[in-house]
């Protein structure tokens, strides 16, 4: 069902309201039969998008309310979260920063609601990777991340005014002959302290990662 403006060819064009066969509804702009311009799309499952459209796709700025209570407000390109935006997750965590193809990608800040800790730094395809700072209540860690875990040189900075330098090392896994079929358990990188100093200006950006 459609009620609204049409052009001389009879295509939906201008402002209109539509109910789709699947029960979703759309109210907003059309150009030559396609959703274009500002509009609000309500999904039968309770989700809602309000923002810019181009040729039937979410494109430009818009806010999407998901059925689980989470919400994204920011840039869209061809129906995907892409550019800059803020995502409020169902558990109360938030991410504010860059996106590419629906994933956290580039520079961004992720705040963990339960602990108040936050990760400020680089992301690759949705995973924490690159130079970053992990900020806790009374101390923070500065270093590099790989696959969501700290790895290599870094330092803990304590609010009392000192720093603990060191590196996160991948532990060597002991191999046992009989258990070859067992998948290896994920191992956490281990922190190895090198020295404790007064506050220093070192940052993970100072050194290039090893090739």
UniProtKB/TrEMBL annotation:
InterPro entries: MORN (IPR003409). It comes from Rhipidura dahli. The gene is Rsph1. This is Radial spoke head 1 homolog. It is found in: Cytoplasm, Cytoskeleton, Flagellum axoneme. GO terms for cellular component: motile cilium; nucleus. Residues 1-14 have a biased composition (Basic and acidic residues). The keyword Repeat applies. The lineage of its organism: Eukaryota, Metazoa, Chordata, Craniata, Vertebrata. Signal peptide: none annotated. GO terms for biological process: axoneme assembly; meiotic cell cycle; spermatid development. Residues 1-27, 171-211 are annotated as: Disordered. Functions as part of axonemal radial spoke complexes that play an important part in the motility of sperm and cilia. It comes from the Eukaryota. Keywords: Cell projection, Cilium, Cytoplasm, Cytoskeleton, Flagellum, Meiosis, Repeat.
